Amino acid sequence: MRLLHTSDWHLGRAFHRVNMLGAQAGFIGHLVATVRERDVDAVVVAGDVYDRAVPPLAAVELFDDALHRLADAGVPTVMISGNHDSARRLGVGAGLIGRAGIHLRTAPSEVGTPVVLQDAHGNVAFYGLPYLEPALVKDEFGTEKAGHEQVLRAAMDRVRADLAARARGTRSVVLAHAFVTGGEASDSERDITVGGVASVPAGVFDGVDYTALGHLHGCQTITDRVRYSGSPLPYSFSEADHRKSMWLVDLGADGSVTAERVDCPLPRRLARLRGTLEELLADPALARHEDAWVEATLTDPVRPAEPMARLSERFPHTLSLVFDPDRAPDDPDVTYARRLAGRSDQQIAEDFVAHVRGAGPDAHERAVLRDAFDAVRADRTVREVAG
């Protein structure tokens, strides 16, 4: 069986104020063309269909168009909700839509109930694990601790139990939206850290033939059987070096897996430039970036006059301007920025406690801080879902 694995469409999202709806429509067209041209048997979409819980009407219309075109192609599609989606909204009408071959899996209670498709070699069971917010689903799965690894392990236990009860030789595919250890993040994914730990080990998904992951925006291979497709379009300049693609996966009769990357069309290249304003305006080697979306980091020790206007004369698609002046290492602004660089909210809060009273928090106080951050994240998720 040949699968096309994609995820993280983020319909309705802009790129630094640039409306991406046209590019997203172009990707949908490319997806459907790939389905037809490469003899795809099933499409799997591993979450974050929309960019927010209540998407704009134009994004909903594009999603509706995508569903109609996939149904017209006659190729089954299995789709889960991600942490940006409202699972309840995305799942409305799932029963009726399923009759057209578009199978939406958005309810945690359904993780052990697969979509079963057939090919010449028998059945393939597709299990959809939507994004599982630990604080909201721990009771459903009966876990003592509200953590990503705990709820995903419980969900996979249900998958393996169902698979064990099926006919011998049934192959299996899991769709999941999670941060798996070994994956490389970018700046455009929303933080899903709970209890100080965001990632789960790839071994959680042992026992199935292929795991189609969503959440991280870079296409990457965790193991031969566990892969991220990444987002089909860039949503931050941290993705400037990404090769945007989908996975074309061949699932053999014996459950073996081979995979090929299928490139996605990009509306414009990304470039991250760094230097003084005069260097960026004069360097002939930068001519190749004049048609790219540009993020310029200026290192002038004194902020120059009208930098955006002057940059835009040479780089008309400059979208982001960052100031990082070259300064002495002991400059207060430099040392403060370096202290904060790469530190989590938890670490910054602990540093603040140490600064105020002269000693850092003890184990109990660290747990209180961690619980407070988790509660804020859970509250934000509940409000977005209720939307």
Automatic annotation (TrEMBL):
Residues in Nuclease SbcCD subunit D C-terminal domain copies: 267-355
Superkingdom of origin organism: Bacteria
Keyword Transport listed: no
Keywords (A to Z) from UniProt: DNA recombination, DNA replication, Endonuclease, Exonuclease, Hydrolase, Nuclease
GO molecular function: exonuclease activity
UniProt xrefs under Pfam families: Metallophos, SbcD_C
Chain segments annotated as transmembrane: none
Domain Calcineurin-like phosphoesterase: from-to ranges: 1-218
Listed InterPro entries: Calcineurin-like_PHP, DNA_Repair-Maintenance_Comp, Metallo-depent_PP-like, Mre11_N, SbcD, SbcD_C
Family named by the database record: Belongs to the SbcD family.
Subunit structure, interactors included: Heterodimer of SbcC and SbcD.
Task performed by this protein: SbcCD cleaves DNA hairpin structures. These structures can inhibit DNA replication and are intermediates in certain DNA recombination reactions. The complex acts as a 3'->5' double strand exonuclease that can open hairpins. It also has a 5' single-strand endonuclease activity.
This protein's name: Nuclease SbcCD subunit D
Organism phylogeny: Bacteria, Bacillati, Actinomycetota, Actinomycetes, Kitasatosporales
